[in-house]
Specification:
Length: 390
């Protein structure tokens, strides 16, 4: 009997080691990793710089406490401020924690403006995490079922529906923020267009609302910019990060600018582990390697190659609805539920994911090469064709 709580239906494989974009199971079989532990292993597996950076830091000091200064955390905050044009960073350990900090900040901001029941506008198909507040912000009734009462203070609008946001603006005086993923991950790889994001920014400015971008999955270079919102040339007031920031070492961050900066004071929020020396070293090394190795440009070109490869290989195949995404965040929507493709791909030595029931989701490491892209397209295409023909 397993003593691990049954929160995941796990695939029957365990990996013993990894190298670059490859993982090796306990029997030595190798798998092309097109999922990266759900957008986590930014630098692939076993990246020498990351291994060295972590080992070096582990040999000095792993953890001190936020009761003391942590120079590496300060350096990482400075780096994040440089690449985002934002001001302040709160460090935590996961995506939901980063979003929890963002939600608390937005409420705090509201209370300062004498709004007693601050409300945050959230989107359909959104995924923000599984703590009570972030689950309440998440648009998944199945994930919420059994955990009521949910946290109040969220109103939901259809994704990209500006009119719905404007209607709420007209009748609800308690709104303090709009929260969205610029590129939805769990929800099925849906992209907000630039015009819509700019209009949301304008509306937030008009109304004095905070714009919160959940970049937990699409941030850190994955879409071909450091952050997804940079494609639209707008800046959010709050952005949240986690998954890819530490390349596998848990770290989350809630980054603020303008109106959202300078709000929290000692005692308002905290984290025991957040931004400890080990995690900060992993974050800094990840950002350094991305810059020095041109991995953001790589995400653009290899992402393009993957989408173009599938578009060509699957042209005219009945059942393929759409190939979409940006950079190395790619969705292939089929006209039917296709979860079983995950096991078929596993058997064929390919690690992929299916989300929202019928969307194949690919989240390769930023070190994926053109030839890895070709291997992925060549390996997965016949499985998709076979699946659709059966
Ligand atoms: C994964 C994810 C989260 C939650 O992150 P955890 O680290 O699992 O808590 C939040 N938002 C988005 C967009 C995500 O993809």
């Amino acid at each position: 009997m397993s003593h691990v709580m049954n929160t995941y239906s796990r695939l029957p494989v365990a990996f013993a080691r990894g190298e670059g974009v490859w993982l090796y199971d306990e029997a030595g079989k190798r798998y092309l990793d097109a999922l990266s532990g759900i957008a986590v292993n930014t630098l692939g597996h076993n990246h020498p710089r990351l291994v060295q950076g972590i080992a070096q830091q582990a040999g000095r000091v792993l953890h001190t406490s936020n009761l003391y200064r942590i120079p590496l955390q300060e350096a990482l905050a400075t780096r994040l401020a440089e690449i985002s044009g934002m001001d302040e960073v709160f460090f935590c350990n996961s995506g939901l924690e980063a979003n929890e900090a963002a939600i608390k900040l937005a409420r705090f901001y509201g209370h300062k403006k004498k709004i007693e029941l601050p409300t945050i506008i959230v989107m359909e198909h959104a995924f923000h995490g599984r703590s009570l507040a972030t689950l309440s912000a998440t648009a998944n009734r199945k994930a919420q079922a059994g955990f009521e009462p949910l946290v109040q203070g969220f109103v939901r609008v259809p994704y990209r529906d500006l009119d719905a946001v404007r209607q709420i603006a007209a009748r609800n005086r308690d709104v303090v923020a709009v929260m969205l993923e610029v590129l939805q991950g769990e929800g099925g790889v849906h992209l907000v267009d630039e015009t819509c994001l700019r209009a949301l920014r304008e509306l937030c400015d008009e109304r004095g609302w905070l714009l919160i971008c959940d970049e937990v999955q699409c941030g850190i270079g994955r879409t071909g910019k450091w952050f997804g919102w940079q494609h639209a040339d707008v800046r959010p007031d709050i952005m949240t990060l986690a998954k890819g920031l530490g390349s596998g070492v848990p770290i989350g961050a809630c980054v603020t600018a303008g109106l959202a900066s300078g709000l929290f004071q000692p005692g308002n929020h905290g984290s025991t582990f957040g931004g400890n020396p080990l995690a900060s070293a992993a974050g800094l090394t990840t950002l350094d390697v991305i810059s020095e190795s041109g991995l953001i440009d790589n995400a653009v070109s290899v992402g393009q190659a993957i989408r173009a490869g599938f578009a060509e290989a699957l042209v005219g195949v009945a059942g393929v609805v759409e190939i979409r995404g940006r950079g190395l965040m790619i969705g292939i929507e089929l006209d039917r539920p296709c979860a079983e493709l995950v096991t078929r791909a596993l058997d064929a030595g390919l690690l992929i994911n299916v989300t929202a029931g019928n969307v194949i989701r690919l989240l390769p490491a930023l070190v994926f090469s053109e030839s890895d892209a070709k291997a992925l397209v060549d390996g997965l295409t016949p499985l998709i064709r076979e699946f659709l023909l059966q």
